[in-house]
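Continuing the batch. This is chain 6 of the set; chains 1 through 5 are on the previous pages. Same settings as before, nothing changed between runs. Recording input and output for traceability.
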Amino acid sequence: MIFGILKDIKEGEYRVICTPMEVRSIVAAGHEVWAQHDCGLAAGFTDEKYAEAGARIVDSAAEIWAGCDMVAKVKEFVASEYDMIRKDQILLGCIHPAGHPAEVDALLKSGCIAFTAEDAHRYGSPNCEAAGKVGALLGLESMMTINGGKGKFVGGFAGAPGMNVLIMGAGTVGQAALQVLHSLGAKCTVMDINVGILRTLMNQYKGDIDTMFCNKETIASVLPQTDMVLNCVKWPKERTDFLIDKEMLKLMEPGSVLVDISNDDPGAIESSHETHFDDPRYVVNGVVHYCVSNMPSAVANTTSVAYAAEMLPMILSILNDGVAGCCVKDGFYRRSLTAYKGWLTHEETSAIQSRPWIRPEDILGIADQRLDPAPPATVTRSSNFYEKK
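Output for chain 6:
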């Protein structure tokens, strides 16, 4: 098969889905790789390195779309690409389909086969770790007086106390943020709805953090003493309430900081809306908001190296085993199948957008095989199946 590496074109996006290292592995497996000109340059990987690894360098995205059996990128597919998607072509990217109905329309209309990478990670995405760690640093930058913050230093100085930080959500993102902030001396409170995770973190940090059950009431109780909030909660998209509403921001001192790392739309923070690196901050009720949606791109080289390494087994499985074989072998890859030749196969998208769907194992005809198990990607369920013809 011919595998194509697209240059990401989302504003402020500098990562690349495959580095030259992964190209070598794909070529060694007997496949051809096309790399779009400068697809990895912003992350530190030149065309010459891709060519040395065995890739064919092509000038434009149009050539990738026209000539490749499978195309991949880091982020979602955008309107300028929709007309180039071909029937039966395999797509891989962080599609986030439940939040992008126009993108889903294009995928279904094209008759392509699309996988959404964010649902494919068995052990959590390196992008999540990067988001937590980078989000923590960008929050500290936002706290500086020169950026509108109240000017507190994370660990304090002799005679001056450090920052009080609230981390909402103790998954991969929240734990990564905690690692950075605790090591720099912040006084950290972590909230989650999983008491087992909170107990584990208490033991891991030898009681040097505070933990609380995460709900609106507990959040409100600590906001007056909190200098910075980091939202790391994956908020169910069907919910219309908030963990922090605009009125609650008034509980915080002016110049406090809120970093919405999850940045869902809709999400857990009423005042949150997507920003970009060229204008990342805004203020609501005195609180500085940092809501860039692709924070890991700020460290594009390290994130690309980690992310590409994790995505390589999935790419090789699709190329070597075919779509059906890949979905038999790995349940996490199976649950990430989003569209298959005009059929929606993504449960969360079905529920959020009121579209009918079909289970991947049914449309692929593999339901009777011994399938690798995987939990659902989200808590959102849908019984809106296509009607049998």
